[in-house]
């Protein structure tokens, strides 16, 4: 990747005036500047501070449009660096558009892959921090394939905040994908309805909960004939489980950590 970027920068310096003054680039820029300018500024700051963790960017940690305009100003000493990131995105757009048009002409449907989450150290969380629950992490609960569950590391969404502009962030994201793909694969689409949410300090997927989740009352469970107070509301650790995991020390474990249930094991 470093070699490719080095070559791309050399090519950019040779043809930047031609490309940046072309009508095709101006059209691309005007159609995409809402995300393109923040993205270029993010890339510049990431490389300048040598980290994508925008909480480490000093006065630039908190995004604002005023700061953005200064960062991408034509008068800035680093303006060529900003334009390089424009240039890369422009060529990605051209290449992907050409591939998509060729595929459609041949009767081939392109399906794009869209992950449900974004990296917590991304341009999205920098520009739109209120749209994300930054003190959380997303994952999956324990199951047959992963006894400790999964922790994917990206923050969950603040759906209440997103709803205030009719989910504009999501609509913009899907619209952009629609320029190149006929269909999407959303991984995982269940995340639009409920997702396994963990505290951001969690290492595994064990200590999470589904969000949103609708609790069932005791009355509802009793009405369905499945209410068992001890089984559903108290620790359900069997003697055999303790013996299997702690061997001869199982009584010590039970006495210290399951005092109120010690009689159950005797």
From TrEMBL:
Keywords: Carbohydrate metabolism, Cytoplasm, Glycosyltransferase, Transferase. Gene3D superfamilies: Glycosidases (3.20.20.80). Its EC number is 2.4.1.25. The keyword DNA damage does not apply. Pfam families: Glyco_hydro_77. The keyword Repressor does not apply. It is found in: Cytoplasm. GO terms for cellular component: cytoplasm. GO terms for biological process: carbohydrate metabolic process. One of its GO terms (molecular function) is 4-alpha-glucanotransferase activity. It catalyses: Transfers a segment of a (1->4)-alpha-D-glucan to a new position in an acceptor, which may be glucose or a (1->4)-alpha-D-glucan. It comes from the Eukaryota. It is an enzyme of class 2 (transferase). Belongs to the disproportionating enzyme family. This is 4-alpha-glucanotransferase.
């Amino acid at each position: 990747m470093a070699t490719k970027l080095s070559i791309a920068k050399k090519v950019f310096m040779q043809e930047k005036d031609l490309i940046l003054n072309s009508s095709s680039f101006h059209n691309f820029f005007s159609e995409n500047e809402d995300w393109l300018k923040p993205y270029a500024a993010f890339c510049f700051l990431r490389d300048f501070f040598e980290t994508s963790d925008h909480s480490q960017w000093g006065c630039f940690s908190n995004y604002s449009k005023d700061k953005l305009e200064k960062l991408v100003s034509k008068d800035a000493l680093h303006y060529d660096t900003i334009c390089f990131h424009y240039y890369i995105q422009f060529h990605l757009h051209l290449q992907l558009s050409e591939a998509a048009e060729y595929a459609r002409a041949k009767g081939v449907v392109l399906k794009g892959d869209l992950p449900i989450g974004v990296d917590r150290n991304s341009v999205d969380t920098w520009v739109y921090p209120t749209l994300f629950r930054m003190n959380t992490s997303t994952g999956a609960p324990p199951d047959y394939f992963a006894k400790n569950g999964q922790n994917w590391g990206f923050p969950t969404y603040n759906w209440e905040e997103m709803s205030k502009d009719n989910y504009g962030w999501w609509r913009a994201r899907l619209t952009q994908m629609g320029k190149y793909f006929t269909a999407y694969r959303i991984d995982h689409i269940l995340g639009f309805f409920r997702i396994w949410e963990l505290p951001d300090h969690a290492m595994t997927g064990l200590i999470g909960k589904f969000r949103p989740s609708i609790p069932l009352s005791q009355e509802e469970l009793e009405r369905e004939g499945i209410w068992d107070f001890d089984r559903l509301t108290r620790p359900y650790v069997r003697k055999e489980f303790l013996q299997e995991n702690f061997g001869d020390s199982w009584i010590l474990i039970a006495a210290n950590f399951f005092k109120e249930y010690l009689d159950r094991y005797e």
